[in-house]
Amino acid sequence: MKLEARVKSTIDLLDIFFATSRPFDIIMSKYFKNNRWIGSNDRKAIAEISYSIFRSFEKIKFLTRKITEKYGRFFVLVYLKNEKLYKLNQIEEIFTGRSYAPQKLSEFERKFLNNLDTQFPQFAQLNYPEWLENYLLESFNKSIFQDEMLALNTKASVDLRVNTIKASKEKVLKMLSGFQTDVMQYSDNGIRLKDGRISRSHEVLSQGFAEIQDEGSQLIAAICNAKEKEIVIDYCAGAGGKTLALACSMKNKGRIFALDKYPERLENARIRLRKAGVNNAFCQEITGKWLKRHTGIADVVLVDAPCSGTGTWRRNPDMRAKFSKKDLEELLQVQMDILSSAQKLVKPGGKLIYSTCSILKIENECQVQKFLQKFPNFKSQKITIKNYCGDFLKLSPFRNHTDGFFAALFIKEKD
Question: What is the DSSP letter of 105?
């Protein structure tokens, strides 16, 4: 494909994105599936253009604030002019109107591109939604706020977690001899790839010897510190990423219940668990009857709660585009509802871990404070793992070279 065809595909994808509520990666996957003639190199290039736009989303949105239609087209035009620094005649060579190319520029579009304002407010310059500014400012020290925001606009590393049920770290490193790898600061079984992506068809992944998982997320299993004979409940298991890590910690022994309210997610988890050789995990849809029958049985309950995902903006830069204040308010209630339900499953002396991939204090420390006020029979415990000690686990791309991540550890008092 020529550049003009790649640009037209990007416009098509953005138009679909703005017209629906679906995440961009799902939209893009379906688009490529329906357009199989687009080759792998072209798919990669289209994805690169799209995600580059999302990494400058608020800046482009600010420049297009008076535009009321054709959002995809104008977002791409502004990206080419303002971010790629293409001259107008270069853009016209892309927007030719030929087959597989975008329509020619209108006179309005030419005038629009020639009069772009390059003075940006802080939220646009640092690429975060304006309404979120106060929440972000209360979450970070003012002296490093800009550094933290800029770090969230960088590309994320590719992190792997070795599946010690099937392979040793040494074996996996040998299989990755063609990649440049780096040692992780906190995770014993983590491997960071320094030179970009790895295909999911690579033997390391296809055979279940390792999983793609950010280092911050890998640490949750270390905080849970589940033992071989214990009963563990992964309350919001989703597709099972943390269930897999817990199974490794428990050496495939004991019992793990992977819970979720969506059966389709659990089906994906079952597939991953089988591939990884896990046989101590059981997938279970959340029902009131199941929860009542299992009150007070668990040594460890992990609540990896639904959240804003602000800590994953490097990997999912489109997430900031549609997230609203109403969404945040609803999530805060959901998080507390889940914690209130999950705490019943913890036996006296057992552990409850609350985690999010959010950088927002209102979803993290504030929720911890509310939980402890509501359930005084739980006490907060300091988190101590490899190279880290603190009241809570608090990670960010700028300070820790991981996704933004938070975790709190509670101990239920014995009767």
Answer: P
In this structure, the dihedral spanned by the alpha carbons of residues 79, 80, 84 and 85, taken in order and rounded to 10 degrees, is: -110
Alpha-carbon distance of 258 to 302, in angstroms, equals: 10
Helix (H) or strand (E) holding 405: strand 405-412
3 state SS for 231-274: EEEECCCCCCHHHHHHHHHCCCCCEEEEEECCHHHHHHHHHHHH
Q: What is the pLDDT of residues 340-393, one digit of tens each?
A: 999 999 999 999 999 999 999 999 999 999 999 999 999 999 999 999 999 999
What angle in degrees, to the nearest 10, is found between the helix axes of 40-54 and 3-19? 50
User: d(Cα 168, Cα 130) in Å, to the nearest integer?
Assistant: 46
Residue 32 structure tokens = 């490529």
**Closest C-alpha to 85, from 64, 108, 116:** 116
Whole-number Cα distances in Å, 73 to 21, 35, 67, 318, 352: 19, 20, 11, 17, 48
Locate 254 and state its tokens: 């004991």
Q: What is the DSSP letter of 101?
A: S
Put residue 14 in one of left, alpha, beta given phi > 0 → left and psi -120 to 50 → alpha.
Answer: alpha
